[in-house]
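S.,

Sequence below, as promised.
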Amino acid sequence: MSTIFGVCTLVVAVVIANVCHLFFPRFPLAIYQILIGVLLALWPLLATLKLEPEMFMLLIIAPLMFNDGQSADYRALVKDRRLILSMTIYLALFTVLVAGLGLHLTLATFSLPLAFMLAAIITPTDAVAVKSLTAGVAMPENVDQALEHESLFNDASGLVLFDLALTSLESGRFSLVHGTGTFLYVFFGGIVFGALAGWLLIKLRLLLMQTKVDIGQIVIPLNLLTPLVVYWLAEEIHCSGILAVVSAGSMHSMLNERLQLTSAKVQIATSTIWQITSDILNGIVFVFLGLSLPAVLGATTPQGLGTLVVVALGLYLLTTGIRYLWARLNLVDLKGNPESRHHDALLLATGGIHGTITLALAFSIPTTINGHPLALRNTMILLAALVILTSILAGAIFFPRLLPPKQNSYTQDEFKAGLVAAVQSALDRINGGHDHPRERAKVADQLLSQLNLDYQVNRTTYRQLLAECYEVELQTIDDLTKSGQLASPVANQYARLLATTMRNNTAIWGRSFFRGLLHRLKWFRHRRQFRDRQPAPADQQQALRSLIAKTTWAVNDHLNAIQTPENVNEVALIRRMYLYRLRPHNRRRQLDGEVLHQLSVTAFQDEHSYIQQALAAGKLSAELARALNEHISIDELVYLQSS
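The prediction came back faster than expected:
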């Protein structure tokens, strides 16, 4: 139970960090997650929370890598195979060799196996951390793709080299031939096994879908369990489980392209679930890092901590310098312009940010070797954590200075204005008809909900429109009374309800003494007229319901006439208030589902048509039109699924 409580607390911490980053986006999300983890470490119930390295890799790292694989473009992976080999094998090997020898020569306490082990730990990079730091800047596409593809496969290189160093430490000897053979088997064996397992699972999924289309309750759990099963089986045959899940994920990216729109519901649901899952798992990694820091720091003296900070900074500068020279000397083809080679090399070097795999490998360091405690375990974990923090801080500092701010061809205000105009065009079509008024009102309210995410109400405009609606109600009563369609008891009852409503709204009732006096004179005039009218009908409640419906539709017609893109939010709020007032009186009257569906589909088509016409007329840019069409299409899809 304590483990479940701890995991739930980590998830809550991730959510809190996301909220903090939402309101204060200046700092990277990972920083918030680490800080919250440090605060959680002060809680005695969580201070002793531990997650076994094997479980950490299986339950967190494997799903993350699988999702990265199935989100990647497999054609781009094949096209960049030389870049991937250069970055994930040659660069990884060279980095471990140089950093390991440098650490061994600098600190005599680190034997060669331990030095190579730590170098292997700080070799893998984290594309998710890079994306969180470059969200507000314009990263060149060639460098961005190189960093993403590198992070997919160099994790496995780090894991294999870590295992080789650990084996050498345990046995006390290292064979170059045996080590090379093991590396090739583990590396390429993981790729082949993952591709085969992914292909078999795809065949199973297609077979299930041919039996019955969109069986999400089977296909989605199968997809979520795939990385766990593939990783476990690959590790059982001593292949790289990480590369196996990446390879299986790449096979699934091929499946998604083959399916296209034949399984839209399943694909959308799967994509959404994986997006949420990956965000939570990534957050848990950094929260767990913060949670572990106090215990590791507590085992280090202040003097020792200062030395370790210097060593960690030196390791980061060394690995970053190697990455820069690797790109500058054209040992990896970034496919950029020769003039930008220096700039691209700087970005590639700064983009070597460490995260999930580095932390997982650090906690994978065994506590004992051949029955003897490993004295430098806490030191190595702390060095890895310091390198992670240094890489994140360096990216947060230098990326904004190396890259221009990311800019769209449109502003957020222009997007809002375009969306309001598109919704208004559909509302004009809906409000232009006179048949099926209840269904049209329902669709109008539904369309206005598209604007709810940016729902800002001008209180002055709202009060003015609401006062006009009260006037419409009073005028409707007056007209019905003059035509002899309204009995005085019913009119009196409705007038009292209306007066109470207005008195409750002090901003309207007390806005003007003369306006309030005018309303009172109207009511007195109505009451004097009501005395001479016919007696009340037998069913006064039915007559009152009928009157409420008539005044509501009169107000609705008035709102249709005065609605503009400038007051659409205020009109929507008032319209919804009046429509909700009808609900208790219309419980037995069902809306026509076919008419409702047809009106809704037509309204969404009208919105798309407006955008196309505005694009052709030059009122919208191509990028803004694409963003608006995407937003409306998602709203339409949500409506179709809910209906």
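The CA atoms of residues 97 and 116 lie 7 Å apart.

Coffee later?
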